Amino acid sequence: MKKTHKYDMGVIGNCAFMAYIDTTASVRWLCWPRFDSSFVFGDLLDDEKGGEFSVKPTAKIKETKQYYVTNTNILVTEIYTEDGDYKVTDFAPRFEQDDRYYKPLMMVRKIEPMKGTPSVQVVCDPRGHYGEMTPQKSQGSNHIRFEGFDQQMRLTTNIPLSYVMEGNSFVLSGAVYTVLTYGAPLEAAIENTAENFYTRTKRYWRNWVKSTSISFFHQEKLIRSSLILKIHQYEDTGAIIASGTTSLPEYHKSTRNWDYRYCWMRDTYYTLNAFNNIGHFEEVEAYFKYIENVTKQEEDRYQPLYTITAQKKITEIEMPLKGYLGENKPVRIGNDAYTHIQNDVYGQVLTSLLPLYADERFTNKYRMHTKKLVEHTLQKIADTMEEKDAGLWEFRDRPGHYCYTFLFHWAGASAAYKMAQYFDDVKMADKALKIKERAAEMIEKCYDEETGVYMQAAGAKDMDASCLQLITMNYLDPNSERAKRHLAGMEKELMAKDGLFYRYKHVDDFGAPETTFLICAYWYIEALACVGRIKEAIDYFEKVSSYANHVGLLSEDVDSSDGSQWGNFPQTYSHVGLMNAAYRISKKLDLPNFL
């Protein structure tokens, strides 16, 4: 029996960077100065070129425990050894200061004994240019400088510098601190500053959680998903990335290894929906501004994805690194999907913009300058209605007339119609209705009379989990026999155990998929709730959510045969899926809190 694979890491972040820390308190992944920059610690993809930032005991480890400080993105790792026990508290400072958010490129580590007299070794050995550059180390009065980066990198610490420089172990008799910085260094007193930043960061996250509107249905899971989603937003521009990692395979040795450190337009609809559902508008407004900057530069097509600074070119190259677990090549930087034709993007932009007009909590300033954008995007739906594209799964050699694309043509035209009413533009409204009718005609071309299922594409016989959204987006009346038959057909063909769902089962340009795609399971759960199968929806929600790792983080893919996590991690798509499914179920339950 093969061993279940789980990502044994927690993630910290402050909306400027993220760091991945495993259950031995080793930093496995950290990119600076941006999400899509080279790693400075990349042991996750190469144990030789990836450098090291670790806190290791001299005695044998008996047990480890890792958890988040309640309602925060502060991570604690406890290490139990034969000589004594200690814990490492990791966080990225984030709090309000001078009417702005303080979010420096700074990682703070507090290392403190819990029991006995443990001895530890602290190693800080960063790398640059994806492992090709080893910086020069030099010792200052209370810090170590790493020279060779675009900006200065420093490790400031109250540990004797000789121990860190020479890699010597020392007895942990009291709390010690390390503060790693990129750019502006820490010049203040380390102990007081670290404790002050910890207190203020904890307070910030707990106040942020308090300001969310989350139901009692699996509240703890929703809080963790919300917190994780939040730190995937690059606050400087408002972009939200799909994941903080690259080249973690969809399954072992699959070669399906992609760079997800970019912002997909497709994800916009689902992500904004999730933030809306928890009543968080600061993130929504920032994302709107990002979308506006992206779309304003496009006179012709919208790309499926852009960089976090709204740049168009994301050249995909393969790097000379070992790959995850030492044998998952290629390691890809960049993503060629930016060149793909994926026409569902236009409907997703329009549905994402709709709250600006339909939700009175947004003020007029967010509705300015967007009419031309709405008109242009609606016209792009009309222009591409007959065009084959790569579909949402970004097939590289399988162009088609995909049902999912037409569904978002339909939804985008519906949103444009509502916006036309706000503009009091009869001509735009009439145009939107005609495009919506045409999109519905194209969706119906995907319907298979024999099975009663809407297929992946017009004229195809392959099913696709994305077509579950014909129900969740109300194209099909959830109470209709047509919707129920469609759902039954999808279950029969694509469902694995515990409500896990395959995207599709046909062979693509990399063979047949071997793992299930987690957001598809949450789409299925939403569909169950829509058609009134609430008990099943709740049961499957609990089963699917149990595939999280030890700190509640979800991967992109799950191997249904053994529950292994695969794909980039954590995956915002998966956490957004959990949030939206929970919201749908809680609305259906609509019970008093005391029941």
UniProtKB/TrEMBL annotation:
Keyword Repeat: no
Keywords carried by this UniProt record: Hydrolase
Molecular function terms from GO: hydrolase activity, hydrolyzing O-glycosyl compounds
GH15-like domain segment(s): 219-583
A GO BP entry: carbohydrate metabolic process
Protein name per UniProt: Glycoside hydrolase family 15 protein
Signal peptide: none
Domain Trehalase-like N-terminal positions: 10-156
